[in-house]
Specification:
The chain is of the alpha+beta class. Helix content is 40%, strand content 12%. Strands 1-2 form a two-stranded antiparallel sheet. A hairpin with a 5-residue loop joins strand 1 and strand 2. The longest helix has 24 residues. The protein is elongated. The termini are far apart. About 12% of the residues have low confidence.
Length: 144
């Protein structure tokens, strides 16, 4: 059997209490850095975007605009964070990493993308390709 002296029991209680107090303080004071909700969109889905537009009287007028996000319009070298997280297999951390890496230099090809983005597998890249995600916009982008 294992017995603790009264002094050892007090030390364990104090240590346990300190750990709990530190945990509670951290939970209360930690910033709320929750990522935006992930939306899974197909080619026919729509997202409502509200844009604040200044009017001549310096008041802001809400303008609602509906924009379609389809995989054919997701380009890893140019799309913003909100669009990247809608892609299959790309979550908040991966989207942030993509943006950080492309600020250094654009992705030349899919192999370069896989090598620079940790956690992306060949299967995930194939899923991205099949959903219509591209690295670059097409040369003729008059409709974009």
């Amino acid at each position: 059997m294992f017995f603790l002296t009264r002094e050892e029991q007090i030390k364990i209680k104090i240590l346990t209490s300190l750990v709990l107090i530190i945990g509670v303080i951290y939970m209360i004071s930690a910033p709320n850095n929750l990522p935006p909700k992930k939306a899974v969109l197909d080619g026919n889905s729509q997202i409502e975007i509200t844009i604040d537009v200044p009017t001549s009287s310096d008041e802001l007028k809400k303008v609602e605009q509906v924009k379609k996000f389809s995989p054919e319009r997701v380009f890893l070298n140019t799309s913003p964070y909100e669009v990247l997280i809608t892609c299959p297999g790309i979550g908040p951390k991966t989207a942030t990493r993509i943006i950080e890496e492309r600020q250094i230099s654009q992705f030349d090809d899919w192999r370069n993308f896989r090598d620079r983005i940790t956690g992306i597998s060949t299967l995930q890249i194939e899923a991205l390709k099949q959903s219509g995600v591209r690295l670059f916009p097409p040369k003729d982008n008059a409709d974009l």
